[in-house]
Amino acid sequence: MQFFTCILLGFLVVCAISVSLSKNLLNSLLIYMSYSLVMSIIWILLESPDLAITEAAVGAGVTSILFFVTLKKIHAIADEDGDEAEAGEPLVTEDGDEVGEPFATGAVDASENTLADADANRERNLNFDSRSTEEEKAAKNKKGRRGRKE
Questions:
Q1: pLDDT for 9-57, tens place per residue?
Q2: CA 66/CA 64 separation, integer angstroms
Q3: Phi/psi zone of residue 100: left (φ > 0), alpha (ψ -120 to 50 degrees), beta?
């Protein structure tokens, strides 16, 4: 029995290290689920069935379902159609340009480009708005002058 407990504790350590080193979110979630299930077995061996049931229900059950739903909502898990990107696949814009991996640090460079483009567009729009405002002021002044002259 002591040997079995040591194997389970070793498995817990391996799960904890591998979940932090895994690059795929879905694999990390599956490793987390196995960690919770092993932990519930350890609670049973420690003669604490109430904690074992809670760990199995909350740790491996409810929390994992919430994580699956979250991964689905952020499109890290592909649909049956395969339209959405899986975790680790590069994001592609409507034009077909590759943005980068969704959770990679290289994605910051692409966002800086879009921020620079957005700033340039904003500046162009402000210039356009200021031109139209100046034109409106000039038109009002002309109307005002016409009214005074008449």
A1: 999 999 999 999 998 888 999 999 999 999 999 999 999 999 999 999 9
A2: 5
A3: left
pTM, 2 dp: 0.51
3-state secondary structure labels for all residues of the chain:
CHHHHHHHHHHHHHHHHHHHHCCCHHHHHHHHHHHHHHHHHHHHHCCCHHHHHHHHHHHHHHHHHHHHHHHHHCCCCCCCCCCCCCCCCCEECCCCCEEECCCCCCHHHHHHHHHHHHHHHHHHHHHHHHHHHHHHHHHHHHHHHHHHHC
Nearest to 75 by CA among 88, 64, 60, 62: 88
38, 11 contact by CB (below 8 A): yes
Per the CB < 8 A criterion, the answer to whether 99 and 91 are in contact is: yes
Could you tell me the two tokens for 141?
């002044």
Burial 73-101 (b: 16+ CB within 10 A, else e): eeebbeeeeeeebebeeeeeeeeeeebbb
Mind listing the pLDDT tens digit for each residue in 37-49?
999 999 999 999 9
